[in-house]
UniProtKB/TrEMBL annotation:
Its EC number is 3.6.4.13. It catalyses: ATP + H2O = ADP + phosphate + H(+). Residues 241-413 form the Helicase C-terminal domain. Residues 1-26 are annotated as: Disordered. It comes from Biomphalaria glabrata (Bloodfluke planorb). Residues 48-216 form the Helicase ATP-binding domain. Residues 11-24 have a biased composition (Polar residues). One of its GO terms (biological process) is positive regulation of transcription by RNA polymerase I. GO terms for cellular component: nucleolus. This is RNA helicase.
Length: 672
C-alpha cells in the first residue's frame, strides 16, 4: 500500500500513451525512420516535381506534418536548389533555431555547416550552408543590401498564416525580386509559401496564381469541450481544469495550456508547482514554460522526453500553436486569449495587449491535442463565445506601428510606400503616421516645394541598425551627447532577454542583490550599472550566480553590443564615454524618446505628454515606489492597466529642447 505501489500501477500505462519513452535516443536510423513515418513522406515526389515545375507554389499542411523540417531537405536532396542557398523564413527566432537544430540532427551534421540559422544578433551559418533557417526580419534586412537576393535560389516563406509584419513585407519584396530576376535574365528565384491554415486563395492569387499543394494531415479525433458559463478569470479556470485532468489521467498524458505572456506564464508555472507538491497518488508533474523571450536553452526543455511516471505540463503562448511541435500532448487547455500588438494611432505607440484569439487560432490550438492519439481540448469559453470570435487574425501590418517597416522600405529604394504591392494594404493613416514619425525623427524629409519624402543621410544610417527607429536614433544622437559607449550598453541590454533572475523561493535575496544596481535615475541606468559591474568582473559566472543575474543573457547582451558597435564603426562614429555623468545619458534618451514621455499630474497619475493617456509605472521598475515629475519610457505593456515598464527620470525641458516643433504642434492640436 502507499505511494510506491500506486506509482507502479501507473507506470505500465504511460508507455501506451507516450511513444517518446523509447530506450534509444535519436540514433540516426531512428531519426530516418521518424522522417519516413511523417505524413509528408508519401508525397515527397509529388512535392518535388510540382515545385520544380512552377516558379512559385503554396503548400498547405497541418502543423506537425513535416513542412518545415522536410521540404527543405527534399529540395536539397533533389538538387532543386542548384547549389545555391535555400532560405526558410520563420516569424520567430525560437522556431528558426529549434527547427534548424532538428534538421541538422536529421542530416547528421553539426549546426552551422550544411544547415544553419540566422536570427537577429546571431548568425550560425558558414560558406557551406545550403539550408538557412532565418527570421523573416533577417531576410528583409538582407534584401536592403541585395534587393534581388542573389545568393538564394529558393525562398520558403514559412508560417505564412501568421501574417507578421515582416512576412507581409517580404511577400512584396520577394515577389519583386523574382520579377526583377526574370526581367534581367538572372537565375530564377523560386518562392514557396507554407501555411498551416486553409485560407490560401489569397496567397495563390497574390503569387500569380501559384498552384496549391495540399498535404494530407494525420489528425486523430479530438473531443472539444466548452464551458457552460463564461469565465471571468481564465487563469484560475485553467488551473482548475488542469488539476481536474491531472487527478484522473494516467502518467504520460501530457497537457498543453495556452495562456498569453511571460509574466502570466511564469506565475502559473509557480502556482502549479506549489499546488502539485501536496498532491498524493498522482503522477509527478514536469511543469515547463514556453514563450518567445525564454532563453533558447530553456525552451529546448519542452522537447525533452518526459521521464516514466511523470506528466509534462507545458504552459505556452501562441508560440505552440503552429511553429513548434511538442510530443505527447493529449490534453489542450485553451484560455481563448492571446497577447497581441495593438497600434494606437492616437499615441503612435504599439501596445502589447491581451485580446480574444481568432477562430483560426483556437482551431489550431485544438489540433495540438490530436497529433499522436485521440485527445481532448478544454476551451475556457462558451460555445457562443466561440461563435462570436473573428474568423481570422487581423494581419499585424494592419494593426501595428509601421515606422520600422516604412524606414526599411525607404532604405530599399521603395519611395512610394503607399503604392507598394502589399498583399493586404495597411490603412493609409497608419502609413502616414509612420511617415510622420520618421519625419519627426529626422529620418525622412520633404523635398522642397513638394510632398515627396526622401530618406535623409540620418535615416540611411538609422536603417543600418536592426532596431526600432527610436533606438537607432538614440545611438546616432549619443555621439553628440558624448555617451555612445553607455548608450550601446543600455540598448544591448534592452535588446537581450531579461538579465534579472527571480527565484521564487528566494525572492528576498534576489531583490537585495538587485538593489545595489538600482538607481534613482531609473531602469536604463540600472541596466547600465549591471552591465558595468559584469564587465568589471570579466563576465565571471559565479558573480552572476551570486547576484541573481542570468549569465547567458548577459553574454548575449555583450554580443549584441559588439555587433551594434561594429555598425557604428562602419558609420565612422566616434566612441565617446560620459563616465560618471549619467545625466547626459538620460538627456540623450529624452532626445530620442520624446514621443514616449509621461508626466505626473496633480492627481498623482502619470499622463503621456502628447495624448494625455493614463499610464502607470510597472511594479518591476526601479522607480515603482517613486513619483518622478517626468519620465521617458522605452516599453509599454497593458495588463490590468497600461504600464511603462522600462523608464528614466527626465527634465521636461530636455524634451522641449529636443523637439520644440513637435511639442508646439501637439499643444496647438490639443487646444483646437
Ligand atoms: P510542420 O512544419 O508541418 O508543422 P515540422 O516539420 O515542424 O512540421 O515537424 C515535423 C515533425 O518533426 C514533428 O511532428 C515532430 O515529430 C518532428 N520534430 C520537429 N521538430 C522537432 C524537435 N525540435 N524535436 C523533436 N522532434 C521534432
Ligand atoms: Mg512548420
Amino acid at each position: 500500500f502507499g505511494p510506491p505501489e500506486k506509482k507502479q500501477k501507473l507506470n505500465p500505462i504511460q508507455f501506451n500513451f507516450n511513444s517518446q519513452n523509447g530506450p534509444k535516443k535519436n540514433s540516426f536510423e531512428e531519426l530516418r525512420d521518424a522522417r519516413r513515418a511523417l505524413p509528408i513522406f508519401s508525397a515527397k515526389h509529388k512535392i518535388v516535381s510540382e515545385i520544380k515545375k512552377f516558379p512559385s507554389a503554396i503548400v498547405i499542411g497541418e502543423t506537425g506534418s513535416g513542412k518545415t523540417t522536410q521540404i527543405p531537405q527534399y529540395l536539397l536532396e533533389a538538387g532543386v536548389h542548384q547549389n545555391a542557398i535555400i532560405a526558410i523564413t520563420q516569424p520567430r527566432r525560437v522556431a528558426a533555431i529549434s527547427v534548424s537544430q532538428r534538421v541538422a540532427l536529421e542530416k547528421n551534421t553539426t549546426i552551422g555547416s550544411l544547415v544553419g540559422y540566422c536570427v537577429r544578433f546571431e548568425d550560425v551559418t558558414s560558406a557551406g550552408t545550403k539550408l538557412k533557417f532565418m527570421t523573416d526580419g533577417m531576410l528583409l534586412r538582407e534584401s536592403i543590401l541585395d534587393p534581388t537576393l542573389t545568393r538564394y535560389s529558393i525562398i520558403i516563406l514559412d508560417e505564412a498564416h501568421e501574417r507578421t509584419i515582416n512576412t507581409d513585407v517580404l511577400f512584396g519584396v520577394v515577389k519583386a525580386a523574382q520579377r526583377r530576376r526574370l526581367k534581367t535574365g538572372q537565375k530564377l528565384l523560386k518562392i514557396i509559401v507554407m501555411s498551416a491554415t486553409m485560407d490560401v486563395d489569397h496567397f495563390s492569387e497574390y503569387f500569380n496564381k501559384a498552384p496549391v499543394l495540399y498535404l494530407e494531415g494525420r489528425q486523430y479525433p479530438i473531443q472539444v469541450m466548452h464551458t457552460k458559463e463564461p469565465q471571468s478569470d481564465y487563469l484560475f479556470a485553467s488551473l482548475i481544469t488542469l488539476f481536474q485532468i491531472h487527478k484522473e489521467a494516467p502518467a504520460g498524458d501530457d497537457i498543453l495550456i495556452f495562456l498569453t505572456g511571460q509574466e502570466e506564464i511564469e506565475s502559473a508555472v509557480k502556482t502549479i508547482k506549489d499546488l502539485a507538491r501536496d498532491l498524493k497518488d498522482v503522477p509527478q508533474l514536469v511543469v515547463l514554460p514556453l514563450y518567445a523571450a525564454l532563453p533558447s536553452q530553456t525552451q529546448i526543455k519542452v522537447f525533452a522526453k518526459t521521464p516514466p511516471g511523470h506528466r509534462k505540463v507545458v504552459v505556452a503562448t501562441n508560440i505552440a500553436e503552429t511553429s513548434i511541435t511538442i510530443h505527447g500532448i493529449k490534453y489542450v487547455i485553451d484560455s481563448g486569449m492571446v497577447k497581441a500588438k495593438v497600434y494606437n494611432p492616437h499615441s503612435g505607440l504599439d501596445l502589447l495587449k491581451v485580446v480574444t484569439a481568432s477562430k483560426a487560432q483556437v482551431l489550431q490550438r485544438t489540433g495540438r491535442a490530436g497529433r499522436e492519439a485521440p485527445g481532448v481540448c478544454y476551451r475556457l469559453f462558451t460555445e457562443s463565445e466561440f461563435q462570436n470570435m473573428s474568423t481570422n487574425t487581423v494581419p499585424e501590418i494592419q494593426r501595428c506601428n509601421l515606422a520600422s517597416v516604412v524606414l526599411q522600405l525607404m532604405a530599399l529604394g521603395i519611395s512610394d510606400v503607399l503604392t507598394f504591392d502589399f498583399m493586404d494594404k495597411p490603412a493609409p493613416e497608419s502609413i502616414n503616421a509612420a511617415l510622420e514619425e520618421l519625419v519627426i525623427l529626422g529620418a525622412l524629409e520633404r523635398q522642397v516645394n513638394s510632398d515627396i519624402l526622401k530618406l535623409t543621410p540620418l535615416g540611411k544610417q538609422m536603417a543600418a541598425f536592426p532596431l526600432d527607429p527610436r533606438f537607432s536614433k538614440v545611438i546616432l544622437l549619443a555621439k553628440d551627447y558624448d555617451c555612445l559607449e553607455e548608450i550601446l550598453s543600455i540598448i544591448a541590454m534592452l535588446s537581450a532577454e531579461s538579465v534579472l533572475v527571480s527565484v521564487s523561493n528566494k525572492r528576498k535575496e534576489c531583490l537585495e542583490s538587485h538593489q545595489k544596481f538600482m538607481s534613482s535615475e531609473g531602469d536604463h541606468i540600472m541596466l547600465l550599472n549591471i552591465y558595468r559591474a559584469y564587465k568589471s568582473v570579466n563576465g565571471n559566472k559565479s558573480w552572476c550566480f551570486d547576484n541573481f543575474i542570468n549569465s547567458t543573457n548577459m553574454h548575449n547582451a555583450q554580443e549584441i553590443r559588439k555587433q551594434l558597435r561594429e555598425i557604428c564603426e562602419r558609420n565612422n562614429m566616434t566612441f565617446t564615454s560620459c563616465g560618471r555623468d549619467t545625466t547626459t545619458i538620460r538627456k540623450c534618451l529624452a532626445a530620442g524618446f520624446f514621443m514616449n514621455a509621461a508626466e505626473l499630474s496633480k492627481e498623482g497619475d502619470f499622463l503621456t505628454m502628447t495624448t494625455r493617456t493614463k499610464v502607470s509605472i510597472h511594479p518591476s521598475s526601479a522607480l515603482f515606489q517613486c513619483k518622478p515629475a517626468c519620465v521617458v519610457f522605452t516599453e509599454l505593456v497593458k495588463t490590468t492597466k497600461c504600464y511603462m515598464r522600462t523608464l528614466s527620470v527626465v527634465d521636461p525641458d530636455w524634451l522641449y529642447e529636443a523637439a520644440p516643433s513637435y511639442f508646439k504642434r501637439k499643444k496647438t492640436s490639443a487646444i483646437s
